[in-house]
Design a protein that fits this description.
The complex is a heterodimer of chains A (164) and B (397). Chain A is of the alpha+beta class and 164 residues long. Helices cover 37% and strands 21% of the residues of chain A. Chain A has 2 domains: 42 residues; 88 residues, 2-Layer Sandwich (Alpha-Beta Plaits), CATH 3.30.70.920. With 397 residues, chain B is an alpha/beta fold. Classes of the chains: A alpha+beta (164), B alpha/beta (397).
């Protein structure tokens, strides 16, 4: 498969990982074996990391609490930001870890079952790390868009059924 | 006060003969059948299923907030006309001055203006068919005579020089080219257009080239006839933002033509429309400045649907050329033995799928139906299943 097709395949899969290879093949105008072969290859190369669903747990009534936490880091030795970032990333409560520009250094998101559990997690696991010089916790009140997916349902105007 | 009773005039006389003589739209009749039903899958829609990209809507909102609610110059905002010239330069390699661009209220207005600007009573205009439904009535309303030119399945519905030649008379003034084509999805590639140039020049015809689907060309790149040798002086290009940027309801299009023709069109436009709506002009500026990413995204989706849908139709046994552009498939339904109108009416009644009978687009569209694939893949798959069942239940009797 040529490079353009490969990118097209990835863009489709990025948004709709559920489409079966037979249909992907029809959409892209290539053979089924080309699709499965390319996907295998992309997975192996680590280009495709995972096939993931975006879930609105609120819609199910599940109570999850999300927080965005800014971390100020003072580097202790030459191991740099990687060591502390990896250490934080290891906790399953931590959903994302980014090294960022601006007046703090790391930005992480944490998910917990209650505000208390998130607060305790930060107080017990993150804040005491010796490189951490300060934390600011922002609790998420409402999610409007997640991973490029809009989570609010606005009514869409209907088209006429027949137009020239 | 001036009702029939007091004037004693017959009702029929109130309506001009010219309007009375225009036959009702074939699509309109079918529309009435579909109206008010929400249990159907519609393949009858000639517009994108995407909302206008948000950055364009946002630009329109912002312009309203800033108070851009005035008239613009008749010809349209200079900035927009400059951007259009840049795009045409980039896409087609032809250089126009912004003075040669007229911003109109959709391509519909532009085609009406073009016809009214060039036609004298009795002038003939060639309309290759199957064709979008508006050209023939607009020619008649402009005082001209529309002359259909049949295109054939064997030529993939492209216009050939022989087909064109056959209908030319001393009264022929212009030919309308509309590629990528609604309803067939046919495109005219550079070599197809080159074959027409001699005939067009020999008979001194003007070309009205409706290129509103040009950005939705899936096989190769769109060629405008205006870029061919000497044709710039003979061509009126019509284009717009409805299909490329999903802006149908904003009603914004344009014409580019030799100066004297644009001036003539502007003369009508200033008295009948004054100017295109400023909000839509602002949106069009944003579309040209920053719209390519979203446009490519929508085009890619149409292309995926096109491949799935056309393959599906052929699998079912409804023979269909591969449409090179627009968002329509135009399969033959001959194997069922049904006429277009009967096929469409029964498909709707029995399987709840709406498609438009091919003969709504001219006599030679008989034996086909127009299916728009500007609808989601899920809906298209349901439609294919239902069409398959329908075809199986109607083997040629």
């Amino acid at each position: 498969m040529d490079d353009d097709r490969l990118k097209e395949l990835l863009e489709v899969v990025e948004h709709s990982p559920k489409i079966p290879p037979e249909e992907l093949a029809e959409m892209l105008g290539v053979s089924v074996s080309e699709v499965t072969q390319s996907l295998d290859e992309l997975e192996e190369r680590g280009v495709i990391r995972n096939y993931k669903a975006v879930i609105d747990w609120d819609a199910l009534g599940e109570e999850y609490v999300y927080a965005i936490i800014e971390l100020k880091v003072a580097l202790e030795d030459r191991s740099g930001y990687d060591a502390i970032a990896k250490r934080i990333a290891g906790f399953p409560e931590v959903r994302s870890v980014h090294l960022v520009s601006g007046d703090h250094d790391l930005s992480i998101t944490v998910r917990g079952r209650s505000m208390k559990s998130v607060a305790f997690f930060v107080a017990e696991k993150i804040a005491p790390l010796k490189e951490i010089r300060g934390t600011v916790t922002h609790f998420v009140l409402k999610a409007y868009k997640e991973d490029g997916i809009i989570l609010f349902d606005d009514e869409r105007p209907k088209r006429l059924s027949i137009t020239p | 006060m001036f009702s029939e009773q007091t004037t004693g005039r017959q009702k029929v006389e109130r309506i001009s003969r010219r309007v009375q003589e225009i036959p009702p739209s074939g699509i309109r009749e079918f529309f009435d059948l579909v109206m008010g039903r929400d249990d159907i899958v519609s393949l009858g829609v000639g517009e994108p299923d995407f909302a206008t990209p948000w950055h364009i809507r946002e630009a329109c909102i912002y312009s309203l907030e800033k108070g851009y609610t005035t008239y613009t110059s008749n010809q349209g905002l200079l900035e927009l006309r400059e951007l259009i010239c840049e795009e045409v330069q980039e896409d087609q390699g032809v250089t126009y001055s912004p003075d040669s661009v007229l911003i109109t209220t959709g391509v519909s207005e532009a085609s009406d203006l073009a016809l009214r600007a060039i036609l004298n009573p009795g002038d003939e205009v060639l309309v290759p068919e199957p064709s979008y439904v508006s050209y023939k009535p607009c020619v008649s309303l402009a005082g001209g005579r529309p002359i259909p030119v049949e295109t054939r399945r064997e030529d993939e519905f492209r216009l050939t020089p022989e087909g064109l030649e056959r209908e030319i008379t001393p009264r022929t003034k212009a030919v309308i080219l509309s590629y990528p084509n609604n309803p067939t999805g046919a495109i005219m590639e550079r070599r197809d257009l080159e074959e027409l140039v001699d005939t067009i020049n020999e008979h001194d015809l003007l070309v009205i080239s409706d290129e509103v689907y040009s950005k939705l060309t899936y096989e190769g790149r769109h060629t405008s006839i205006a870029r061919l040798n000497g044709m710039m002086e003979e061509t009126i290009i019509l284009n717009g933002f409805s299909k490329s940027h999903a802006m149908t309801g904003l009603r914004i299009g344009y014409a580019i033509a030799p100066q004297e023709i644009i001036d003539a069109m502007n003369k009508i436009h200033q008295y009948t429309m004054l100017c295109a709506p400023i909000t839509a002009q602002m949106g069009a500026i944003e579309a040209l400045r920053n719209g390519s990413v979203e446009m490519e995204r929508m085009k890619r989706e149409y292309n995926h649907r096109r491949r799935v849908f056309v393959k599906g139709l052929n699998r079912i046994g409804l023979d269909c050329i591969t449409p090179g552009g627009a968002f329509y498939a135009f399969p033959s339904i001959r194997r069922t033995g049904l006429g277009s109108e009967e096929f469409a009416a029964r498909l709707l009644a029995e399987q709840r799928v709406a498609a438009v009978p091919g003969n709504a687009f001219g006599r030679c569209g008989e034996g086909h139906i127009r299916c728009s694939y500007a609808t989601s893949l899920e809906e298209l798959k349901i439609a294919l299943d239902r069409i398959e069942e329908f075809v199986n239940q109607h083997p040629r009797g």
